[in-house]
């Protein structure tokens, strides 16, 4: 039963997450809320791991969640159901676009898809920032102090990380994430 659930959830995610692996994140937050298989915090951790591994982020997340919920079979089912529509659609589009590459409607459709993809990515970024870095609603609820609303250590680490990445653009993401993990362990973030 769990494999069937994984199949249909990831089939839907694969069909509607236009824009790459990060576009799956809003759907995965919805999946978390609907099924309770993992928490929003666990998803943020999964995302950090998925981004540090080779391969597409969406597939890495599907593999992680599938394995978490259904073992090796769940991993295989999640990956398959996530990518099957993409494979089919890419084959169909490749065949059709040769015939319609100068069609104005096709160009307009792709022009509309790009902002929609950006919107999905921004929504995912807002959720990640809120759950991981900035907002500590539990501390704020206890003290009602404005400065307790933010997780200051995490905010400072995020700003420093952002500045380092902006300055040294050739740092591989895996090294950056490893440095973040080491700093988190040292400072107990």
Give the tags.
mainly alpha, 80% helix, 0% strand, 189 residues
Kindly describe this structure.
The protein is an all-alpha fold and 189 residues long. 80% of the residues lie in helices and 0% in strands. It has eight helices and no strands. The protein has helices at residues 2-16, 25-35, 40-52, 57-100, 104-134, 137-143, 152-167, 173-187. Helix 3 crosses helix 4. The protein is globular. The chain starts with a helix and ends with a helix. The model has no long low-confidence stretch (mean pLDDT 81).
SSE arrangement:
Blueprint: H1 2-16, H2 25-35, H3 40-52, H4 57-100, H5 104-134, H6 137-143, H7 152-167, H8 173-187
Helix pairs in contact: 1-4, 3-4
Give the structure's gist in a few sentences.
By secondary structure, the chain is mainly α.
Number of helices: 8
Give the topology string: H per helix, E per strand.
Answer: HHHHHHHH
Helix/sheet category? mainly alpha
User: Biggest sheet, open or closed, and with what strands and sense?
Assistant: none
- This entry's quaternary arrangement is single chain
As a whole number of angstroms, the C-alpha radius of gyration is 19 Å
| DSSP strand tally | 0
Uncertain residue ranges: none
Mean pLDDT: 81
- The helix content is over 70%
In percent terms, what proportion of residues is strand?
under 5%
Net shape:
globular
CA distance, first residue to last residue: 38 Å
């Amino acid at each position: 039963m769990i494999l069937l659930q994984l199949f249909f959830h990831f089939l839907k995610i694969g069909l509607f997450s236009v824009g790459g692996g990060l576009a799956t994140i809003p759907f995965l937050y919805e999946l978390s809320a609907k099924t309770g298989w993992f928490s929003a915090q666990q998803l943020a951790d999964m995302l950090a791991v998925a981004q540090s591994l080779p391969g597409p982020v969406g597939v890495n997340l599907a593999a992680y969640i599938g394995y978490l919920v259904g073992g090796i079979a769940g991993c295989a089912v999640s990956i398959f159901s996530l990518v099957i529509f993409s494979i089919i659609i890419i084959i169909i589009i490749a065949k059709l676009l040769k015939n319609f590459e100068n069609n104005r409607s096709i160009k307009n459709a792709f022009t509309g898809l790009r902002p929609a993809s950006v919107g999905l990515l921004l929504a995912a970024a807002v959720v990640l920032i809120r759950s991981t870095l900035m907002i500590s609603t539990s501390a704020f609820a206890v003290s009602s102090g404005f400065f307790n609303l933010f997780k200051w250590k995490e905010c400072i680490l995020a700003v420093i990380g952002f500045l380092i990445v902006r300055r040294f653009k050739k740092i591989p993401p895996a090294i950056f994430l490893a440095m973040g993990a080491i700093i988190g362990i040292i400072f107990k973030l």
